[in-house]
Amino acid sequence: MASLMFSFFPFLLVHAIFFLSRPALCDDEDNLLQGINSYRTSLSLPVLTKNKNADCAAGELADDLEDQSCDAAAIPSPNTLSTLANYPKVASKCKIDVNTTTDGVIMPVCVRKLVPTLVLTNYTRTHYAKYLNESKYTGIGVGSEDDWTVVVLTTNTLAGSFASGAWRMSEKIGGLGIGMVFGWFFWVR
Questions:
Q1: Which of 2, 47, 58, 159 could lock onto 103 through a cystine, CB 3.0 to 4.6 A?
Q2: Is the per-residue pLDDT at 145 higher than 80?
């Protein structure tokens, strides 16, 4: 009888973990992204693709808002990364070249217990909807912590791509390399 209980306990423990655990926040973030893309598709707009650096910035900003209560927070308005007080820290941690953030937009919302339908509604039925309705936005980053969700929208322009400094350097070096090849070609003639 003891051996039966000993073999039954791990089985019970594994099932308890799977059935009683709360889904991870990343699943909620993916569901929000899917909901926003469904909303954009219904408006005949292209879907937003995940942007790694914007995702990092959204996560860092959500972490910074974590200790702020929904009641104490003023109604947040969309921001660019450069208008935020902790912008240098976020840009540095996420390796974002600050010159590539001016066309992007940051949209924080506070929803108690992050109820998925309410979070989506806070983006699609509020002043944030005008940004989701614009076709110039092509990328997205989503971060959430406690009652806060932050969405960062990016563009496919250099001023809104949230690109890293390394990308910008390779762009400059690549341009220099092409210039050298053309210069060599015309010099040899």
A1: 159
A2: yes
Q: Per-residue DSSP letters for the chain?
A: -HHHHHHHHHHHHHHHHHHHSPPPHHHHHHHHHHHHHHHHHHTT-PPPEE-HHHHHHHHHHHHHHTTS-TTTS-----B-GGGSTTHHHHHHHTT--GGG-TT-EEEEEE-GGG-HHHHHHHHHSSTTHHHHT-TTEEEEEEEEETTEEEEEEEESSGGGS---HHHHHHHHHHHHHHHHHHHHHHHH-
Residue 13 falls inside a structural domain: no
pLDDT tens digits along 31-69: 999 999 999 999 999 999 999 999 999 999 999 888 888
The pLDDT score that the predictor gives to residue 42 is 97
The answer to whether residue 12 is domain-embedded is no
Domain that holds residue 36: 24-188
Q: What is the pLDDT of residue 165?
A: 65
> Residue 62: inside a domain, yes or no?
yes
